Prior knowledge:
Layout: H1 5-16, H2 21-28, H3 32-40, H4 50-63, H5 67-80, H6 99-135, E1 167-173, E2 177-183, E3 186-193, E4 198-203, E5 206-211, E6 217-221, E7 224-226, E8 236-241, H7 242-251
Antiparallel strand pairs: 1-4, 1-6, 2-3, 2-5, 5-8, 6-7
Helix pairs in contact: 4-5
Amino acid sequence: MAKGTFGERLKRERELREVTLDEVSKSTRISARFLQALENEDWPKLPGGIFGRGFVRTIARYLGLSEESLLAEYDLARGENAPAAPSKPEERIPSPPKWIPVAAVLVILLLFAGLIFGGVYAWRKIKARRLAKQLHSSAEQFTQPPATSASPLSASTAVLPPHKTPLGLAVFAASATHVRILADGNVVLDANLLAGQNRRFAAADRFEVSASDSSAVLLELNGRMIPPLGTPGSSGKIVLTSKDVRQVSVGVSQP
């Protein structure tokens, strides 16, 4: 796909519906600078991975376009402009020292000798015990305690502890902003994040996330994209629990 084809089509579809970037931003809650970067195919200004694909899916749904078709064009356009990974230099495996095979043979011989010695010793001990048992069998009396019947718990009455899904939160800063995160009531982050920074956190039950600029923070809970905290340019706060994991899996299709 030639450079500009994806962005030109996105802009053309928007203009055919006579909607501005601000109207799309207000309806989709995606920052206008991200929408403009998509139309200009300015990839360095866009987050990658699930965030970029989530933007394209949301815009396609708003404009009434095929999500999968627009995502395919986005992947093709962005993939052709991605820098090629540098080739790794060939790493030669060094030859092992000559003494290693000799040491391995000695170790095998020692293990074999130890097995033979242990087998002979164990056989002699067993033979001596059998002989002593036969000599005293006529004089010994054995009593066997009555067997107690224990009724095992049936599988139906066993109570299994409830299973809790651990929470994993990924935070991406699209621009510099102050972010505060509490995991299970404990402060795990209270600092300014620079543009392009990524942070990951784990919790058992809940997260509390607040930011001075709602549109500058992108969240991903257990691999699912979370809607922005609020309108662009304003502060916002959100509480995420295991219930949000189930709600997100139903409400947002995975890219």
